[in-house]
Amino acid sequence: xxSAGMCGLRLHLxxxxxxxxxxxxxxxxxxxxxxxxxxxxxxxxxxSLQSDEAGKLTVKPxxxxxxxxDEVTVSVAENFGYHFAAWTNAAGETVSTDNxxxxxxxxxxELKAMFTKKNVYPLHxxxxxxxxxxxxxxxxxxxxxxxxxxxxxxxEVRLTAANNKVLTFxxxxxxxxxxxxxxRMDAAKNITANFS
Length: 196
Fold this sequence. Notes:
Elements: E1 42-49, E2 55-60, E3 65-67, E4 71-78, E5 82-88, E6 94-96, E7 101-104, E8 109-117, E9 120-127, E10 136-139, E11 143-145, E12 148-152, E13 156-161, E14 169-172, E15 180-184, E16 189-195
Parallel strand pairs: 1-8, 9-16
Antiparallel strand pairs: 1-3, 2-4, 4-7, 5-6, 5-8, 9-12, 10-13, 11-12, 13-15, 14-16
């Protein structure tokens, strides 16, 4: 039934984490309003990546149109070989180096996530005499694609060879016999662990 006089709408939210946001839509209030209306400014947000391969964007709350003063958080998850550098505006000026970046929108806004790209190199490991891959541990594991381990330029990779009841580690392709070895990834590497 219609209400004469003041009316209100009360909502209760339970167990909503402090990083969560809730939006409501489709609420219609009918009646006569006395007073003057006030225009609410709305602004658009356009967020993009410097390169589509660089990462994945997230905008919270998930919209491209916001009311003036709304708090907006943009973030990017980096893909392998890319490192977030900054958010830039339409003029190419750095707005922030924070990731995530939170701001209150006060104008139509264009942000682009900028990245630095590192060279990546494969590490090929061969074990002789039919030795299985578990006889050489590799730390860190790297980024594995198509069964090949990739590392960023400058990464240091530690290889540790072990023996089992059948096979004994006898050395590396460079004639070193220490079972522990550190490789600096400055190019594609072809490593051989020799067993007998």
